[in-house]
């Protein structure tokens, strides 16, 4: 029976969960779910100066919001330092690593010499085969791995293919510093082995690390996990992703009104595809995802495309679920707390009734909340600049006729109110829009809104007639 597949996401808590990290987590999660395996979470918090509790909390919160739930407890790399030291000592005992007493001055000298000779800076292995009895007194040694000096280290990668590294370029790198702290290179290997990780999916900026880490696996006689190094995300202009391109924390995307399902859909399509399918549910992504289908080339982040994908997800979402998504997101949206304070059960029911008309145009939850504002407005409405200009003396005259006609409607509905307004247009010789626009301004305080007859229907007879009367007076 084959081993269950175990992937891991291993962020450093030195900042928020940025969009590239979110995509790496997503690919790990999709592959684990697709293969009925597990995705573990490890917080790589060994950099004590830069790691913060707030950043860890932001990462966990971002993953939960995206729906990328990991298996088991999140593991702290820092807390595992004793285990990392134990393995380093084991490597020394096996003759696969050694204590190095080279001083900082000696290391500087090696670097300068290599530079002068046009070689890359490499440790020269001067303590590799020396007898420990030669160790200088009072000097704390680092521990270095004995890297092979001849041949190549080969990484078979699910995305990059076969990648060969000449061993002469992989010097005897440090696995345990002289202060007893493990290096990242070493800690990662020990953690991945102990956690039973079978597949490492991470950014291709870690590809050279893969060769060095393979050396540690082999020195310990451990199985090397399968690897997949995914290309980085670039901006729409092809440059390295920066904040102006969208290199923000996932919490910023929540504040901009993106649905987590839509963001996952868009991120999955950055470098991976399933035929011509652009819009996918989470279930479809899990069913279709194959790590070998990820492209080698860098993907380009495009806000316009993300907005379009988000708009489709908004329109496809059931109205009740969309209202709930809005309610959950209100604390994070600009002005959302104001709506939250006014959200009674009656208002929520109105919101649900208005949702079919509201969601047709919205590309984000920010737009959706903004276009919903008329539901929460209190009389008399404050008109925006365009609506105020529109409601001149002529428009108020039209409103008076529309008000009289609508007052006569007893069985209030979109169809009945539309019939009444059309009759006003015919009797006054105006186009329907010339009657509908002043109505829209009076009912919503704006010149754009969902269909005016849907607005009348959702607001109800009493509120609609009251808002219109306010503007006539």
Automatic annotation (TrEMBL):
Q: Which Gene3D superfamilies did the record assign?
A: 1.10.10.350, HUPs (3.40.50.620)
Q: Which reaction does it catalyse?
A: tRNA(Glu) + L-glutamate + ATP = L-glutamyl-tRNA(Glu) + AMP + diphosphate
Subcellular compartments:
Cytoplasm
Q: One MF term from GO for this chain?
A: tRNA binding
List where Basic and acidic residues composition bias occurs.
111-133
The record places the motif ('KMSKS' region) at 240-244
Q: Which UniProt keywords apply?
A: Aminoacyl-tRNA synthetase, ATP-binding, Cytoplasm, Ligase, Nucleotide-binding, Protein biosynthesis
Q: Which leading EC class covers this enzyme?
A: ligase
Please give the family membership noted in the entry. Answer: Belongs to the class-I aminoacyl-tRNA synthetase family. Glutamate--tRNA ligase type 1 subfamily.
Protein name stated in the entry? Glutamate--tRNA ligase
Organism per entry: Tianweitania sediminis
The organism's lineage? Bacteria, Pseudomonadati, Pseudomonadota, Alphaproteobacteria, Hyphomicrobiales
